[in-house]
Amino acid sequence: MELEAARSFAAAIAIGLGALGPGLGIGILAGKAMEAIGRNPEAANKVQTAMILAIAFAEAIAIYALVVALIIKFV
Question: In whole angstroms, what is the distance from residue 56 CA to residue 13 CA?
């Protein structure tokens, strides 16, 4: 019983901390991209493309954290 509780706690910590960084990063990234588009609307397509690519990379880190949490929980 103790081992199961420890696994659940470890999985919760892994996904919690693993999602915190990408969440903050995506928020800052989107805010700065909107600021850049507001300053230079002609560059909106370039900024948007780079923003979406960077968000995908940041989201991949959160997915890795989810995989680690699932491995801790079920293995």
Answer: 23
Answer whether residue 1 shows pLDDT above 90: no
Fold topology of 2-74: F1FO ATP Synthase (1.20.20)
Residue 38, SS3 per DSSP: helix
Backbone angles phi, psi at 40, to 5 degrees: -140, 80
9: CB partners within 8 A, 6+ apart = none
Nearest to 32 by CA among 42, 49, 47: 47
Contacts (Cβ under 8 Å, ≥6 apart) of 40: 47
Q: What is the pLDDT of residues 20-75, one digit of tens each?
A: 999 999 999 999 999 999 999 999 999 999 999 999 999 999 999 999 999 999 98
